[in-house]
Amino acid sequence: MSKPLVVFTYAPTGLGHIRVTDALRDGIPSDYDSVVFSPNDPSIEYIHRLTSINVVLRRIMEWIQRGAPQRIFTHFYRKSLKKIPKNIFLELTSLIKSLNSSPSKIIIVSTHFGLAYQIGMLKPLLEKEFKTEIQLVVQVTDDSPQSIWYVDVADLIIVSSQYVADELQKYGKLAKLKPVKFIVTYYPVSPLLSQRLEPNQIQSRIDQYNPQLNIPINIVIPISGAAVGMNYFIKLIDKLHKLSNRYHFHIVCRQAPFTDSFIVYIRTKKHVTLYTSENYQSVVDLYENVYQKNVIAAEITKPSEQAFKALLKNDSVGGSFIFFAQPVGRQEYDNLNYLFRNDLLSEFGRAVQLPFGTTNCARFINNLFTNGTLYNNFSIIQTKQLKEIHPVPAFWQVIKKEYDL
To answer: Which of 34, 96, 247, 327 could form a disulfide with 6 if both were Cys (CB 3.0 to 4.6 A apart)?
Structure first.
């Protein structure tokens, strides 16, 4: 009997969609076949980068992410996304046919709303082409109830909190959109990062927090796909190194024309190990490899989808302490609110928000290491009544139950 086929889809709009897709792929049950589909559309990446780094466009985007501007913008944007994209149909059908299989059912998992709308409109054509039932599942990648994530052509939308589900369902009713089923489950964090450290590795992380020991402190800094904040990170790295030579930085960055000067500068620093690739997928793999091959004490990052690593216990591979730079865009503020609601955003939780200005940030980070705050509270964090997080199995349990697989 043929297996169900899962088609993972994401768009080249930064690394977040790929990270979430990877987490789901890494935990897929063995009785499913799978393939990844990402359309060849450089314009999507260009628009994403432009709205991320251009201050004026970024403020316009933030303005249309709330209230009446959001409702008006979403109405027209949804219509534009629903135009039948012939190139996507041809690319997707060609990919599935190349597998030379006859799947009993096709589940399309989309981590990008744009592709979800387009594939949803193509669903009748795809079902006719492959003579099988197709289900479109949307995984929301932030804890942010932005109305564009109410994909009315989806069969199922999975979110990480009841708050987001309630807000999106409320919007769907007000906008008189077709009802869609919502399910709340754990946010999909990478199974590789969720693994527990060995006892000696746990001790290594504790030792890095110990202000009495003169050993290197490993800090990861992933540069976003749009390369937001490169100057900020350059200044912060230099200032932290001046405060203490214990800090060793692991920088993961995509190699692109707009990151060339950053990469050239970083390579001159002996206290920095640089990991680069031109390929988005390879950058995500490099990031996970850094955690697997090193015991990381802390991470400095944007409160994007990376915020959900704070769900992990600090004795896990990815359980480093997280310092969040200032948020950009509504979704990043919403992610911080999610952590705050779950008691994970404080210097006694798993993450903290950094102050404004690189000088203040450097002093703040250094103080938490040198005054013993992180060291003294490691055991407190360990024994907090956090639920065991098994996010990826939870996702597949939902899929099995919903579609009788």
So the answer is: 34
Supply the pLDDT for residue 121.
94
> Does 26 share its domain with 159?
yes
Among candidates 346, 339, 347, 353, which has minimal Cα distance to 375? 347
**272 bridge partner residues:** 249
Mention every residue, 6+ apart, whose C-beta is less than 8 A from residue 401.
none
Task: Looking at the structure, tell me whether residues 158 and 272 fall in a common domain.
Answer: no
Nearest-10 Cα torsion for 152, 153, 159, 164: -10
What is the pLDDT, as a whole number, of residue 46? Answer: 46
Per-residue pLDDT tens digits for 254-263: 888 888 888 9
| Residue 287 to residue 309: CA distance in whole angstroms | 13
> Based on the domain organization, do 14 and 106 belong to the same domain?
yes
CA dist 56 and 305 (Å) reads 24
Domains held by the chain: number: 2
Alpha-carbon span 210 to 204, nearest angstrom: 10
- Distance in Å from the first CA to the final CA of the chain: 12
Which residues is 184 bridged to in the sheet? Answer: 159
- How does pLDDT run across 59-69, given as a tens digit for each residue? 655 546 666 67
User: What pLDDT is recorded for position 246?
Assistant: 97
What was the pLDDT predicted at 329?
81
Domain that residue 172 falls in:
5-189+390-403
Task: Mark whether 321 and 338 lie in a shared domain.
Answer: yes
Around 241, how many Cα atoms within 13 Å sit in the side-chain half-sphere?
Answer: 13
How high is the pLDDT of residue 383? 43
Query: What is the reported pTM?
Result: 0.88
> Running DSSP on this structure, what letter comes out for residue 327?
P
Radius of gyration of the chain (CA): 22
- For residues 88 and 136, what is the distance between their CA atoms, to the nearest angstrom? 15
| Alpha carbon distance 307, 315 (integer Å) | 17
Residues in contact with 307: Cβ distance below 8 Å, sequence separation at least 6, in sequence order: 322, 324, 332, 335, 336, 338, 339, 351
